[in-house]
């Protein structure tokens, strides 16, 4: 599960780079879904490995990559909320 978490984080980050030029809302949604799924797999890996007292490096790496992939998603939604608030006034 740790490998799946890392792969989902890398794929989400690779999808993000073309988004730098054009913010397509559907791409951001896909990045968000991949990153959340990757974080779930990373958390599952850490909880499983901590019970067995094994190394949790892959799970931690997957969670970090997925958090990095979620940052632009949160920023875009934040900007959209500010723009929606400004359009109301």
Write the SSE topology.
Blueprint lengths: L1 H18 L5 H28 L4 H32 L1
Helix pairs in contact: 1-2, 1-3, 2-3
Please provide a written account of the structure.
- There is one protein chain.
- The protein has 89 residues and is mainly alpha-helical.
- It is elongated and about 55 Å long.
- The mean pLDDT is 86.
Number of E-type strands: 0
Query: What percent of residues are in strands?
Result: under 5%
Structural class: mainly alpha
- What is the H/E string? HHH
In whole angstroms, how far apart are the ends?
A: 47 Å
pLDDT < 50 runs, ≥5 residues: none
**Rg over C-alpha atoms, rounded to the nearest angstrom:** 15 Å
How helix-rich are the residues, as a percent range? over 70%
- Largest sheet geometry: none
Key traits:
elongated; 0% strand; mainly alpha; 88% helix; 3 helices; 89 residues
Concise summary:
The protein is built from three helices and no strands. It has helices at about 1-20, 25-50, 55-89. The longest helix is centred in the last third of the chain and has 32 residues, at about 55-89.
């Amino acid at each position: 599960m740790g490998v799946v978490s890392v792969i989902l984080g890398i794929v989400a980050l690779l999808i993000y780079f073309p988004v730098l030029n054009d913010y397509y809302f559907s791409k951001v949604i896909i990045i968000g879904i991949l990153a959340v799924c990757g974080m779930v797999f990373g958390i599952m890996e850490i909880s499983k490995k901590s019970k067995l007292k094994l190394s949790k490096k892959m799970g931690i790496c997957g969670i970090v990559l997925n958090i990095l992939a979620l940052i632009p998603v949160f920023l875009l939604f934040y900007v959209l909320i500010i723009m929606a608030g400004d359009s109301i006034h």
